[in-house]
Amino acid sequence: MSNIHFHIVTLFPDAIRPYLESSIIGKAQEKKKIQISYYNPKDFTGKTSRTQDERVDRRPYGGGPGMVLRPEPLLRAVEKARGKRKGVEIIFFATDGATFDETAAKKLEKKKDVVFICGHYEGVDARVQKILKAKKVSVGPYVLTGGELPAATVIDAIARFVPDVLGKAQSLEASRASSPEVYTRPEVLGWKGKKYRVPKVLLTGNHAEIDKWKKGRREA
Questions:
Q1: What is the pTM for the complete model shown?
Q2: CATH number of the domain at 4-159, please?
Q3: Geometric angle at alpha carbon 104, from 130 and 173, rounded to 5°
């Protein structure tokens, strides 16, 4: 059984699927520690006759550039993702949303199902967020062309806290004396006529001093 199921509502699943199927996140899916499913609004237009709208976007009311994603296909896609399960967290990426951080990642890791609504073009009809009572989330003070990268970022951050996703519990930043600087062999790196050495304290084997050095670098 998967620890957590991520549901991504996106017009462009292939934009993020390669990343989420590789490296640590890909292995986590193979080990069934997490599960990721994709729902394309194009498959939920509800068109059954010529009189129904098969498009996923339309011009915005009030004018303006670009196209806005229609509410019906997105609402149907989320309904499919949510099913009859209770306690599903729905994330709506928006520039005015709460800033996503590690505390939020830890809270979301406790959920069984998390749905991400990935906007595109000029955005998503605002009624979608209101109807679903989705939580508005922002990954930073900037605008991206779509919600796929934010979804991948949030999934990556949450997955790190799922038991056994990382090789060692010590890999979690909060549980180790980490440093923004890390080094490996060679001890002395020669590059374009200059020599760059590993800090001496890391070579001493004195773990108390090493942890003290790491903490100092982290707080600097």
A1: 0.85
A2: 3.40.1280.10
A3: 160
